[in-house]
Structures are given as structure tokens and as C-alpha cells.
């Protein structure tokens, strides 16, 4: 393409004495409006090198969106570390139950110990996330993971040597310092793709699919290790994988979000942000869907096929998350969340209808697959809203609060589902996840900042 910065007119014939001579072309001065900006302004607006390699315009191909997502240097490395660190999250509870029940002969004790660890995590995790926001991911996540890994090893030794029961509670409570690797990974995506809502949407969908994959494969791997090797093998392997994954994740310093020692604007916690408490209640009710569905399905199937049937629900959620992330999100995230929760409420009724209508295992498995596909879009959109509502410099804390709400909902859903199964039967128990999904939808409708009438720019 020719250079258009200056225009050379055609030679002009001029009369010089008796000879016609060609006047030399004169360069037209560059227009002021096209002059290059000074170097300081170019350095401020210049995008990073990986973003300048993107093709112009939105990439509508699903593979193209994920290719753009992993374009920043170091993105694939920290993703690998995050996946490695998250896989044990689905292993620890199953491993602890198998290990403790086998050594002490009490499933009640095993359940109480794991419940104590869950409650301790719900209390400690937000404070760990606040430290991460203030001092940086690498400086906090590594020592916190070391403490959690030592707690897992202490539990292993206590069980191995048949120590008093109270030592099991103390050791497992020490694992509460485990950092929220999924939240830290989402914070990195939000930092790398700031100003690109479509890329952040794809990143949230990928992270949700990764969560589902880890929680689907973790229990299977734990059960296999405990059965094939020795009862403590699942806990030992989980501690090693978690520590190795966090070390790989923390080593990618180039993608780490900057720290914010003092919250801007004087904000002390995301809980004071308008709309955040209502959104956390939605996460709480959504967690109850997962907890109740798991307990009720285990009671309904009552056999070795229960794990495979529950795996269909997780597989459906994983696939739906990847597909949802490959499409361009519709505007108005608050309204999008309402649509996702409405779809989840409708599809959660399929297992209830299958269990009540036929009572057959194949019908229930076929109903759980679309029911699982409804959950990922709701959580992806909810996490997007969490990121937009969280004050700057508090992103890890905000997302950890969302995960804590989910954990609390899972615990409440498990208790409610178990009580319903015991008093009304497994078939009636499927009404609990339907009611929990409907409650999440109602809370979203009533909550300020999440309903369809919101006009906040941050939620659009």
C-alpha cells in the first residue's frame, strides 16, 4: 500500500526564458490531525504485544475464543498449575472418609471430621483471600498451602497411629488455610483481559468447566488410590499434588495481578458493596441444589453405580460450561443470570419426574445429564457479576466469599436432602433441589442489583 502521509503532485511545466522546464514536485506538509502523538501518549495507550497479534474484530469461532484466552504469555503455565492444585479438592473428603472409617470403624466420626474441616474452611478462606489481595498471590498462597499440606499429613499420621479422635478434628481443621486456587486463577484472567468482557466471560466458563472436571475426577482417583494401594494413599497424593500445583501457579509472576495494600475508596470488605449480599444468597441457594442432589441420588441409586450416575451430572455441567464460554455473552448480566436460574429450575425438575414416573436408573441418568448442563451457565454468570461488584483490589476476597456461600449451601442442602430422604423417601427427596433452584431464582428477582430492573453500568 502506498504511503499516504504526503501527496506528490504531478510535475508542472513552467516557462523559463524560451525553454519549458518541469518544476520539481513539492511535498505537501502533513496535516496536523494526522501527526503522530508524542511518545508518552503512545506508551500509555499501547496494548500488550500478545493483544496486538489478535485479528481485528470479534472471533466468532468457539476455538478462536479459547485461543485468544490463552494468548498472554504464562497463561497456559498458571492454568496447568491451577488444575493440578484443584484436583485434590475433590479427593480430600472422600479420602478422609475412607481412611477414618476404615481405621476407626465409624462413618459418623468420619463425617463429623470432614464437616469440621468444611466449616473451618468457610471461616478462614475469606481472611486468606484478603491477605492474597493485600500482599500478593505468591507471597500468601505458598505458605498457606504448606500449612494445609502439613495438616493433611498430620491427619494421615493420626489415623495411621490410631490417635485420639480429637486429634483428627484438630489436624483436619488446619487444612482450612488452603487458598482458593480457582478464585486466584479467575483473578488472573480478569487482570490479563481487563477491558474485554467477552474474554472474561470465556475465562469464567473455562474455570467453571475445570472445577466440574476436578470434582468429577477427584473422588474417582481418591477411591482408586485408597483401594489399590493403602487407605492413606488418597490423602498423601492429594497433599503432594496440591503443593506442587500451587508452586507451579505461584511461579508465574508475570501474570499475577498487582497488589492493593489499602482498599481504594475506603472499602473494607466486598460485603458492603450494594447488591453483593443478595448475590451471595443466590450462591447459597445454588449450593443447596448441588448438596441435596448428591445425597438424594446416592440414596436413590444405593449401589456402586451411584458414582457414575453423579458423574453424568458433572459431565453435563463441564460440557455446558465450555459451550457457554464459546458464545458471545448477551448484554445485561443481571438479566442473563435470571434466565440461567429459570432454566436451572425447569431442568432440575427432570430427575424428580423421572424418579417419580418410572423409577428406573437409566431414566434418572438421562435426566441428570441436562440437569447438570443447567448449572454451569448460572455459576459462570454469577461469577461475572461477583467480579463486577467487587471493589478494586478485593477480587480474590469477593470470589472466595462466593465459593464460601456455595460450600455453605452444599452443607445445608446435604442436611435437608438427607432429612427428606429419611422421612419421605428418595423419590420425594428430588423435590429439595427443585425447591432450592426456585429459591435461587426468587432471591435473584428480589435482590437489589441482580434483578431485571437494575440499571447499574457495572452489571450491564
UniProtKB/TrEMBL annotation:
The keyword Zinc-finger does not apply. Keywords: Membrane, Transmembrane, Transmembrane helix. The keyword rRNA-binding does not apply. It comes from the Bacteria. The chain crosses the membrane at residues 77-100, 107-128, 140-159, 236-255, 276-300, 306-325, 337-357, 363-386, 398-421, 427-446. Residues 36-54 have a biased composition (Low complexity). Residues 23-64 are annotated as: Disordered. It holds the Pfam family MFS_1. This is MFS transporter. It comes from Streptomyces ficellus. The lineage of its organism: Bacteria, Bacillati, Actinomycetota, Actinomycetes, Kitasatosporales.
